[in-house]
């Protein structure tokens, strides 16, 4: 069996360090908002090249807190790609704002400047770009300039793109603020739910630290109507341990992705664009295949696991029945045909070569 994702194997090399960390954690007697959170925030901010990092409970809460911190709410519109994971949309509607969905570029799966320009209105308060599947939005600098010129906030959903960069600037350092998820399957994954926000805005940094902690910076004094969205102390320690290997593990993902791109020659399979080094850290390796279910069954015969990211676009979900009437043909084509192949730091070259060989024999 070639597993899609083997979390046990990914984390196995840290086994001794995890046990040592747990012992330190237990002996410290400090389990929330302690030194482990502070250490991770400092190191992750430096890694991203940002001034500030705020550890939070998960990626969705990170997105929501960013919008709250910038006073995005009822009557405001936020432009967002229509093919993103539903969490991006949930954060916008959670604060009472209106998501304005736009089509992605079919070649990159990411939002473009032209699509943003088509829907901007006097209600637009921000643009939420998504570095989907690990690929930096290629026009991020142009989008940033556009947002500045039009007095719009630029938010990054970087939940799948830890360490990706363009022009030697890492994601998390382009917009006014960026949200990260450390869900266990991410390139930098915790052993449970965890997230973070990066920003270069010192005022917003202080506001976010209060909002995540019941709206309080000083115990029992509440400045805002906040939440309990704190990063768990032990998970912060886990993330600090794993952060040191992120560059090496991303490099391995890039190697395997390049092997797929150069090796798969089956015309029935549309491959993702090859990117410059580090512009895509390949959280997943997405392909497009017509007749996807037959293709999945074919791979199962060879014990190759795959996943679909994602089978149903947000505007067709029951949760957003008010959007079900909308039609986004590019997005719907992507969600109908997309499939993710196995890719992770612990997949061997031989396993990837086996996947390539099997795919190239597929006749449909």
Q: In what order do the strands lie side by side in the largest sheet?
A: 1-9-8-5-4-2-3
Oligomer designation? single chain
CATH topology of the largest domain: Aspartate Aminotransferase, domain 2
CATH hierarchy: architecture of the largest domain: 3-Layer(aba) Sandwich
The percent range for helix content is: 25-40%
Walk me through this protein's architecture.
With 364 residues, this protein is α/β, with parallel strands linked by helices. It has two domains: 7-243, Aspartate Aminotransferase, domain 2 (3-Layer(aba) Sandwich); 246-360, Aspartate Aminotransferase, domain 1 (Alpha-Beta Complex). Helix content is 39%, strand content 16%. The protein is built from 13 helices and 14 strands. The chain has helices at 7-12, 15-28, 35-48, 59-69, 86-94, 113-119, 140-149, 202-211, 233-243, 246-263, 292-301, 329-337, 349-360, and strands spanning 52-56, 77-81, 98-102, 124-130, 153-157, 165-166, 169-170, 177-181, 195-199, 216-218, 221-222, 269-270, 285-289, 338-341. A seven-stranded mixed beta sheet has the order 1-9-8-5-4-2-3, with helices on both faces. Helix 2 (15-28) packs antiparallel against helix 9 (233-243) and helix 4 (59-69) runs parallel beside helix 5 (86-94). The two termini are 22 Å apart.
Could you write a compact summary of the structure shown?
Helices cover 39% and strands 16% of the residues.
Keywords:
364 residues; alpha/beta; Aspartate Aminotransferase, domain 2; Aspartate Aminotransferase, domain 1; 2 domains; 7-stranded mixed β-sheet; 3-stranded antiparallel β-sheet; 13 helices; 14 strands; 16% strand; globular
